[in-house]
Design brief:
Length: 155
Amino acid sequence: MRAYLLPLIVALVVLTDPLLAQPFAATENVRFEAVDVLIDSHGVPLAAWQFELTERSAAMRVVGVEGGEHPAYATAPYFDRDAVARGRADRIIVAAYSLRDDVDLPTGATRVATVHVQLTGSLRPDYQLIQIVAGDSSGRAIPADITLRPSTERP
């Protein structure tokens, strides 16, 4: 039985060696980028927020989300961690809220989250950022502006 085992192993190595020598994803340009999401609540304490981030050419996969700069939003916000872990997050909805007193909430422009993405292809990403809601500590929607910037442009 052992006499047949050695030729079988040698044959498998010889036959699979050309397959293993193939370069992986040589035609795809894969890179990573981090983008900051900022919300400006125009002087009103920001107690809750939610946004959706997509990329119009479908070349994006979200690989992580981290919290913002203000202590009220320093921990990672809520998002579908399972979809991100499985590599299936080609769009993402992110949200957070804080039960802090109004004096301890951000009142102007603040980075609420940083989204880490994997991009494929050579084109510049065409992000679409939609603010779903921004709210005050009473649960009322407030007017706010949401913007996206590369994290490399942080002041």
